[in-house]
Amino acid sequence: MERVSDRGVWRVKATTDKLATGHRELRDAIAGIVRKAVENGWADAGRTERWLEKLERGRTVREGWPKYGVWLNEGALEVRYMSTSPNNIEREVQRLRAMGLVEGRHFSVRMPEGSKEGYVSILKDGLMRAAWLFVHGEGDQQELAAKFIGYILQRAGEEGGAVYEKALKVVDRGREVGSLRLTDIKGAEVFVGGKRYVVAS
Predict the structure, then answer these.
(1) CA-CA 20 to 30 A from 39: which of 14, 29, 77, 200?
(2) Using only C-alpha atoms, what is the Rg of the chain?
């Protein structure tokens, strides 16, 4: 916030991510101003479309998580948080690291540049790792992973059946990884170099 004149005029800067967390009345009022600006040619309709979508829907927040987008891209699950705020992106990076995820292996990051949004993208291995920590982790890591997985499945459910089914499949796979003990596969047949072997104790 900055004062721009001695007549009590102030300029307030706020991102649409921040505004989208406000009360419905505030979001509706700002959306009305944006629409009027488009009608009068003061703002680009294409650029403001995403703003209006955020303002109208608001941000889904569960257990302090910002709104992650969850969708399918050519059959592959995409999980991504986007923001124009470097601080918001960094906050998510720190939270994912605290969960036990590793940048580059479990998630990727692009910081915002100017008015261009940055993002935190959860890779398939990252979602699987979080699911594994949900089941096999300990302490704060397990609690954080449990909340994250619950939230991502909630978001996937909001997007529809195919997205939810894909997300659940990835999560289930992550829960299973590393959970098998030797006794679980005793007697199973495996083939190595064309030869048949039976797993013994």
Answers:
(1) 14
(2) 23
